[in-house]
Amino acid sequence: MKIVIYLYVFTGVLLSSCEKFLDAEPTTSVTQDNYWRTQSDVSNFVTDIYATTFPVVYEGSIFFDEMMSDNAFLVWSGWYTNIRLLANGTQDASGTAPYNIWTRHYANIRKCYSVYENIDKVEGISAIDKETLLAEVEFLEAYNYHRLVFFFDKVPLITKTLTDQESKTVTQSDRETVLNHILDRLNLSIERLSDKTQPKGRADWGSALALKARVLLLENRFEELLPITQELSAKYSLNMAGDRPYEDLFSGMAENSNEIIFSIIRRASSGGVAEGHFANQIFFLKGMSGGDALRACTPTGSLVDAYPMADGRLIRENGSSYYPATPYLNRDPRLYQTVIYPTGNIKYWDGSSIQSTLYDPEDSSTQIKLQQYDAPEPSSSGYMWNKYVDWSPHAMVQITDCTNDIIIMRYADILLMRAEALVELNGSGSKSEVIDIIDQLRNRAKGGLVHRENYNTQGELLDLVRNERRIELANEGLRYFDLIRWRIAEKSPITEGYGLRGDLYGARMRKDGVGRSDRTVAVQGQERRWIEERFFNPAKHYLQPIPQKEIDLNPNLVQNPNW
């Protein structure tokens, strides 16, 4: 059978804000026989695997992973709708969201095996370069398989490129078999990369080891995880530079920080080739940059409520100074660096220059007034993301050409993995080190430290660590995975403050009648903006359905329970 390889002009991003990278027209068509000739062929092919494994936006990106959680709400319609259905629990086996997850990751895995099977054909490649490229592909294969296992549990373990006919007869492997394969690939990658320096944006020793840590965390294998966190601590450290070291990680000001383990690199477009990303278009409210902003994703009220007060106490903690009438006063600095809230400052482009105004989601016309621009379709929650917005003058105008890097793995996550593992393994005996870790993160952000007297049992410490993960890593695409692995997704944001079942809510509503045409919901005695109702059946939704299209093609595939 003649296999055709499609080569794309690789930009690492989507060619336009409404066009999937995978839908772009191929610029060259070649066969297996004449493609694998030079080292450049292999390198370009591997670069393409990076691009499709780590999209900056759309499905599979950290932002769309975040939208599946209780931290964020996806409001925009169109093909984004499939992610919203997954988030609110109304998807089914015939839906596009599970299908896209399944097919995207298996397409990437097929590319990985194309490299394994053809790299020996390449002439003139050095042993060192070959080993490095193989290590990168092993890292990429492991990343794609670990997401398949997480979403679907038992999946086919495919270890070669398949013909169309072979793909219709594969069977699922048990979870442990696939996990062992993932860890074997990562161990190979770690070994190959142990003595090599990689350019920014390519997998290196730390990236592979951090991914191994993440896989072990998702599987609750804490005894194996703990020593890896110690090993990574010898190489990485928290960003402490500047006046706002936390915010700088995501704004583009600290892209070379030693905290960043692996990130996606973006640069401004040049020569008509798109290289930036368009997070601003997703996050900006209508009117902030003409009519192009989509306000597609907004933070939720339960996320905002999770941030401590400036003195370190949670808003529901004994001794808290939280006052419902002034909910944004004296809060942890990370709240202000992550979320733009009502009465907070907001920037916008007025057609000729960048301006600043107070953000008001409930003015008399039920619009967000940005001086010269009235903004219909206001934020569904009353909030807007600040974290990962590119506030540079270029990106304020060209909102589809942002240049701040997107972090996939960073050291703060490793510290929180360590804290969780310590609590799970040692209970309250780990109190001192666990709180020391959390205080490191809070101190870096210039926030209040933990009130140690309030955390004495294993359960109290575990709640503390879980909440700290939520706020420290907000809008980094990890929250949904945490809710699922902790088996707390069926909880309600209204009653427990977290979870994927019941009413999702936003900002506090005014008491003067303004904006009261919107539906509201009571949360801790406060009237809050209602966003949507979500559904989560623990007998069903902890796994995604095997796409019905795949089962129709291959009757050997067994559907997950209750789908």
Automatic annotation (TrEMBL):
One Pfam family hit: SusD-like_3
Residue span, SusD-like N-terminal domain: 20-217
Endpoints of the signal sequence: none
Subcellular location per the Swiss-Prot or TrEMBL entry: Cell outer membrane
Major localization listed first in the record, in broad terms: membrane
Annotated RagB/SusD domain residues: 287-563
Keywords: Cell outer membrane, Membrane, Signal
Keyword Glycoprotein: no
Similarity comment text for this entry: Belongs to the SusD family.
Protein name: RagB/SusD domain-containing protein
